[in-house]
Amino acid sequence: MSKKVVVGMSGGVDSSVAAYLLKEQGYEVIGVTMEIWQKESEGILEREGGCCGLSAAEDAKRVAGVLGIPHYVMNFRDLFQQKVIDYFVQEYQAGHTPNPCIACNRFVKWEALLRRSMEIGADYIATGHYASIKKLANGRYAITRSKFDRKDQSYALYNLTQEQLSHTLMPLGEYEKGQIRCIAAEQGLQVARKPDSQDICFIPDNDYKRFLEEETGEKPCEGNFVDKSGNVLGKHRGITHYTIGQRKGLNLAFGHPVFVTELRPDTNEVVIGGAEDVYVDALEAVQLHCMAVEHFEEGQRMMAKIRYADKGQMCTIEKLEGDKAFIAFDQEVRAVTPGQAVVFYRENTVLGGGTIVRGRKK
């Protein structure tokens, strides 16, 4: 009897081809589109190419019809509000720069979808992420990088649990985007040329400042730009408008480039410095999550990425204190940003990661 797999179908080309490939491999495939945010008009969603919205469900349904698989819509809006949108707003208010995709992957696309899929008798869930899953010699499951670096999505999957990984399939890890679009076109899937979804799917116009004001009902409070000694340099528009390493939009005239180096929500201050102040050679991280290893060790060497598009830098775990790690880099890194993830790799395998608290000098 064939194994049953629920494919999370966002209405895009990647998840559509994932469903096709798994059916070709002999799985009993069920397509599911997750209702997670449907506040924007369908017109906006169509124009922006967003995922998981109203038009996405219609696209996924049409693809399922072509593939000859059942398709259902599941409502996860309340959970998405709690685990993703509320978290997103609270992190910005705390002076952090959140990564909503990581939260959505962990708590919505996997935890909730997997649980509900198991309830209807599925053996696996599957997605259209560009990454792979393998079982290691130590018995643990781990994410491995996509064969093609340009689309690799392993960074945003570092905090999946062993239970989740053992029941997940990722069929796109050996493909590049062009191949996926060709497969979709060959199979007559109308999403073959559909644009990729936005980085923040629930803000299709990418105006997160407007979104934060609408969610909180409050306008950000103005405060002071200061230097690292506390000297006032000017007025800012509210700390939610800024992130570490930002240069544009500061409206400060010094005759040379200046950058945001720190956000201080307690005093509503944005710290400004020169280019050299944006570089650090160490960071602190919390909420450590182990994937390929059972635990991290002091002195452990690995490669770390501090953002999605980062190429990575070799580092060492200097010290562990419970759920906190102190990481020292071999070379300076730019714009270590509180709230973002630091993800650890050994070659192409994800060891785990954590949430950045702050960058620092050794």
Number of helices: 8
Distance between the termini: 58 Å
Strand proportion: 25-35%
- Order of helical and strand elements: EHEHHEHHEEEHEHHEEEEEEEEEE
Rg value: 22 Å
- Biggest beta sheet attributes: 6 strands, antiparallel, barrel
Strand order of the largest sheet: 12-15-14-13-16-17
Tally of extended strands?
17
Structural class: alpha/beta
Helical content (DSSP H or I, runs of 4+) = 25-40%
Q: Tell me, what's the shape?
A: globular
Average of per-residue pLDDT values? 93
Poorly predicted segments: 40-50
Account of the protein in words:
The chain is α/β, with parallel strands linked by helices and 362 residues long. 26% of the residues lie in helices and 30% in strands. The protein has 8 helices and 17 strands. It has helices at 13-24, 42-48, 54-67, 77-93, 100-119, 162-166, 177-186, 208-216, and strands at 4-8, 28-35, 71-75, 124-126, 131-135, 141-145, 168-169, 223-226, 232-236, 259-264, 269-273, 279-290, 301-305, 313-321, 324-334, 341-346, 349-360. The chain has a 6-stranded antiparallel barrel. α1 (13-24) packs parallel to α3 (54-67), α1 packs across α7 and α4 runs antiparallel to α5. The longest helix has 20 residues, at 100-119. It starts with a strand and ends with a strand.
